[in-house]
TrEMBL record:
An annotated GO cellular component: cytosol
Protein name: Phosphatidylinositol 3,4,5-trisphosphate 3-phosphatase and dual-specificity protein phosphatase PTEN
Residues annotated as domain Phosphatase tensin-type: 18-194
EC number: 3.1.3.16, 3.1.3.67
Pfam family, one: PTEN_C2
Subcellular location: Cytoplasm
Region: Disordered, residue numbers: 435-464
Domain of life: Eukaryota
Organism: Rotaria magnacalcarata
Amino acid sequence: MITNPMNRMRQIVSKKKRRYQQDGFDLDLTYIRPNVIAMGYPADSYEGVYRNHIVDVSRFLSSKHGDKFYIYNLCVESERQYDYSRFNNHVCSEFSFEDHNPPTIRMILGFCQHAKTQLKEMADRTLVIHCKAGKGRTGVMSCCFLLYYYRQEHNDPLATLKFYAQQRTSNEKGVTIPSQRRYVEYFGHLLNNRVMYIPKQILFTGLLITYEQNQVFTSSLSYTVKSADHRIQYQSFEIPLERDSTIGRDLPPNYSVLHATHKHFIPPPNQQCRIPLEEDVLIEIFATKTKRGKSVKEKLCHFWFNTFFLVEPKMQAILSDVNERQAESKLGTLSSCLISECGHKHLYTMTKTDIDGLHKDKLHRLSPSSFTVSVLFDYIPTPSLIIQPTDQSCKLPDTRSPVNLKLIESSNDSTLIIGPSDKLIDNDELQQNNETNDKLNSAKTNSNCDNNNRNRRKDRSTSSNRRAFALYPNCLSDWDSTDSESGTNELNLNDELETCQTRC
């Protein structure tokens, strides 16, 4: 049998991804479900020699699905844009994000709502999702949509990730980057616990880097903290790392980062920063090494997390429960303890396998096997947004049927709400809820306050739906982890939801 040399080249490039090889087609394309396709980038020009050629993809979709398909291009790279008219302009690129990174929680919510609309408009429409290789970014969005839309079959995030890996690859290596897997887990737990997603802040005070015996580092480490738009929020100075001559050992099951032989606080405890962080956060760690007599700074690793999951009580319980955690989970571990150097602190700890870039370092050439990074932070007490639900929205969904979740945004994009409601709250209703919240928050305010105070309240009600108490004088909080967002200084959102159910 004579094999087309171009197809052979494409098979080599696609590696272990399953290909569609039927009816004269040989494409890097897989049906995850009968109406959900994951595929590689439809290339033109010379790239079409070793990737899916755009002509072949167009011919395939037309022959198999007619005009009943919709494509999502997740590539943010300008060179990955193509002639959408080849697909009758049934292409959306609004949910693109960078390679080897996760999408924001907001973007995941928006994507799922948009994709659901496409299927509702046309029952037999097929969704086609692709990035460059059609595996990592494509897998994140595919898994999140399965969790969102097909709740009866897919409600466990790790099982859904495994299902996607089996469907898309022959070696079950689908979504492998820890932060991408973490965000699929975030989203799955968000849906399963039926909580409202409202942006929450933490007060970042530094990183704690720990490891045991070290035969690797002969360098210094530094890091940057960035927001979702990659703006730098904090940049640390460098600290030198020690090198040991002893042999490393396996860590005991009850190992704690506070028991580590080497602990590095960046910045030092007496110089801790106080940086408010909100929603999606990127931490990049750099290593400075000496090469040929010159100091060279190279990126060592990075990881993403979302502050909401460190603050919302139900999410805290999941991140803190390591006993029920599966080995494949990349959620990280939330804890709270007294550190002699820093006082009472909250820690969000990532082990080596949870960190992007180090998870593939099987031979420990980049860092010791015991390498961990802990985010040190304090909670900022803020009162919850009070939502007065309709009779329909306060009913718990039937666990036997899919949960029809809705995405709601305020006019200034400051609030996203997930609720088991069958209708969206319009802007007027949301504004009415916000005004009700303003009245409750201002109930204890002196009635004789001056015009400036009234103006400030008015500005806050239109520009932000959140209310924040002033920080402690020394900017430190002595709250326990259970106090976050549910202490005496804040209304408990879960209690409000239970009250809503009682009223209904």
